[in-house]
Amino acid sequence: MACDTILAALEEAGLSVRDLDGFAIYSNSCNPAQVAETLGVPEVRFAATLTAGGGGSAGALGLAAAAIVSGMSEVCVTLMTLQQIRRRLGRSSSENGGVPPVPVSAYGSGGVPANTAFHINSGVIAPGHNFAMLARRHMHLYGTTREHFAEVAISQRENAIKRPTSLQREPLTLDEYINGRMISDPLCIYDYTMESDGAIAVITTSAERARGLRQRPILIMASTHGGAGRWGQALFNFQMPDDYFASSGHRPVAQRLYAMAGIEPRDVDVALLYDHFSPMVIMQLEDYGFCPIGEGGRFVADGNIRYGSGSIPVNTHGGNLSEAYIIGMTHVREAVEQLRGCAVNQVKDAEVALVTGGPATLPVSAAILRRGW
Amino acid sequence: MTTAKRGVVPSVLTDPHADPYTQPFWNAALQGRVTAEECTQCGLRLIPAGPRCFRCQNSEFRTIELPGTGKIYSFIVVRHPLLPSLKEVVPYVSAVVDLDQTQGAGARMVVNVIDCNPETVAIGDAVRIVFDRVSDTYAVPRAVPVK
């Protein structure tokens, strides 16, 4: 699947395996050694991954850009491929009776990490539990409600319905949402992403090289990743400061992103926000400056994220919640389609798109893309 | 393992897998006491403890006693059993607890709150840490409401 996707992306760009020389990935999405060997890449000159997990999706574009700008690579691929035949992501820490998999490193001392016993018997054993903890605090501090979460789920469902390849194409009503099965209260079934198989590859090269290629280029204006040090492993330890406990962890990344791009939130035409859980869209709207901190719930309730009528259309492809979950890469693809002018729910004259990667363990990431010439 | 009890998440570990920094906490836990490691330079209190103070990077700590009481900082009610062993347990409450006599962040505990009503539990509720001894080396921390 990885090879098919890379070949298709190269073909679409008007390039071939002979041009490919770099891998800028995240979450160890593939093994460049294996892919390069299988495809017969003439020479690999760059092979790097952002650390941690899905938080790196948009940031991997920045990694690719860094490789290109520094001259280490000329044509770089960023890939996510997801096949959950034997192991389901959403159950990652529950499969082994709740004990998380022991990190495999040839250099560490091995064994169960010493902080595990401090949280693992709490019953917080899956991603939905972790994010529900943040969501509850947000509700407590700011008066955010389930109706607000519902608006995220419903608006994205509306967007997904128009996309033939979406996995969820049945309308979702507020009534159905409110009566939805509670999984990890305050989150119900409709607040959760789906799990799906799929692959997406993005090709990055220099603007100069892109000029002669098959597609209208999409420019990477900025890409940042990281986060406050004390965000760290926030979602397991919950030791982050009060200031940003009920947040997406993106605030510092967002500020650097806008500074790097030289734009402001109001310049963004469409926002593709990583949505494994609906409350995290609300917290990202705050952290990316579309509304003040704490106002995210009311902001979405006022219709601001709706395609066609809102002030900032969000997840016009349906997102992880309703289209498919390829760990953030569908958001990158949607940004590209919006800026090429061929999206299913096309935002009129979209020129600038924001893409984010996972509220997650550090690093989280983002990119601002702009329509090329 | 004994029979499942509603609201009580069974322990999945029988040993704390302690390192030199966390061993004092588990030693006290076996005696039903809550301790933290306090930075000798700036007074920051850590649970779990580690090699450095994240405020001043000092590496010297002393073990201090805490009252073991605190307030619910956030919580969830797990209604869907992720594992077969949790079918008889749900709904259960898990919470992040800010402990009294600490600075909060950096010394929070993430625990199963037992003997509480999942439908009325709230942020700010007073709780006390209790320990459920499951082996000669490990006592699982949980919280109970303070009436």
How much of the sequence lies in strands of chain B comes to: 35-45%
CATH class of the domain at 2-83 and 193-371 in chain A: Alpha Beta
Number of helices of chain B: 1
Distance between the termini of chain A: 32 Å
Largest sheet geometry of chain B: 5 strands, mixed, barrel
Would you list the SSEs of chain A in sequence order as H and E?
A: HEHEHEHHHHEEEHEHHEHHHHEE
| Backbone structural class of chain B | mainly beta
Tally of distinct domains of chain B? 1
Major protein interface? A-B, 44 and 48 residues
User: CATH H level of the domain at 2-83 and 193-371 in chain A: which superfamily?
Assistant: Thiolase/Chalcone synthase
CATH topology call of the domain at 2-83 and 193-371 in chain A:
Peroxisomal Thiolase, Chain A, domain 1
What's the assembly state of these chains? heterodimer
| Distance linking N and C termini of chain B | 29 Å
Shape of chain B: globular
CATH architecture of the domain at 2-83 and 193-371 in chain A: 3-Layer(aba) Sandwich
Q: How many strand units of chain A?
A: 10
Strand percentage of chain A lies at: 15-25%
Can you offer a commentary on this structure?
The complex is a heterodimer of chains A (373) and B (147). With 373 residues, chain A is of the alpha/beta class. Chain A has helices spanning 2-13, 32-39, 57-70, 116-119, 127-142, 146-161, 174-178, 207-210, 234-237, 251-261, 278-287, 296-301, 319-322, 329-340, and strands at residues 22-26, 46-50, 75-82, 182-185, 187-188, 198-205, 218-226, 270-272, 352-357, 364-371. In chain A, strand 9 and strand 10 form a beta hairpin. In chain A, helix 6 packs across helix 11. The longest helix of chain A has 16 residues, at 127-142. Chain B is mainly β and 147 residues long. Chain B has one domain (23-145). Chain B has one helix and eight strands, in the order αββββββββ. Chain B has one helix at residues 23-29, and strands spanning 34-39, 45-46, 61-66, 69-78, 92-99, 109-113, 126-133, 139-145. The two termini of chain B are 29 Å apart. Classes of the chains: A alpha/beta (373), B mainly beta (147). At the A-B interface, helix 4, helix 5 and strand 4 of A face strand 4, strand 5, strand 6 and strand 8 of B.
